[in-house]
Amino acid sequence: MQRPALLLLPLALTLAIAACSPAEPPAAAEAPATPAATADAAAPAAEPAPADAAPVEGVSGTYLIDPNHTNVVAQWSHFGFSNPVANFGQAEGRIVYDADNVSASSVEVTLPLDGLSSFAEDFNDHLRSADFFDAEKFPAITFKSTSVESAGGNRLKVTGDLTVKDITRPVVLDATINRFAEHPMAKRAAAGFDATTTLKRSDFGVGAYAPNVSDEVELRITTEAMVAAPEGADAAEG
Asked: What is the pLDDT of residues 158-180, one digit of tens each?
C-alpha cells in the first residue's frame, strides 16, 4: 500500500521546487520618449525639389524631322477597363531652332493618317473611318507653332495650332531638349526633343463614345531631326 505514495513523491517534489522558484521579473516599463524621438525633434530637412536639368547647348539651324525615329503616341481610357495607345507615324516636318533667340524658333509637322497604327488592323480601320478621323476626307493632321519660349533649363513651351478634320485649336506642348550633337552615323548636326500635352478629342470632331471612352487624350512625342543632307549624300540613315 505504500507504492502509490512512492509514485506521488516525485510529483510533490516538483511542485515544491516550482513554488520556491523566483517569479519572472516584470517587463521593464517602456522608456519615455526622449526629445529626439518627439515629433518636434530636429528631423532631416525635406528633400529639395529637383532642379531643372542643365541647359542643353543648342545649335542654330533648320532640322528635318526623321520619321523613322519620331513617334506621336496618343493614350486614353477605354470604359475604365484599359488604356490603349495609337501611334501617328511617318511624321513629316521641320524644326527651326535659334540658339541666340529661342523665341525665333518654330515647328511645323504633318502627320499623314495612313501612318496611324493602333496595333490592331480592325481598329485602325475604325479610327480612320468617319466615326473618328474620316481619313478619306481629311488625310492628315497638322501642327504649326505660333510661339516658342524657354521654360528654364532644358525645357521649352511650344504653343501652336493643331488642325484635325479642318478644325484648328491652340495647343501647348511641354517640350524637353534631349540633345544637340553631330549624328554619329549621318555625320551632320542633329537634335532630339520630347514633348507632352493633354487635349480633348471632342474639340477636334473626334469625340465618339465620350465620356465612356475618355474625352481627354494624352499625347507623348519623341523626335529626332537632322539638318538636310548635302546634295548627293544618301538620304537613308540608321
From this structure: 999 999 999 999 999 999 999 99
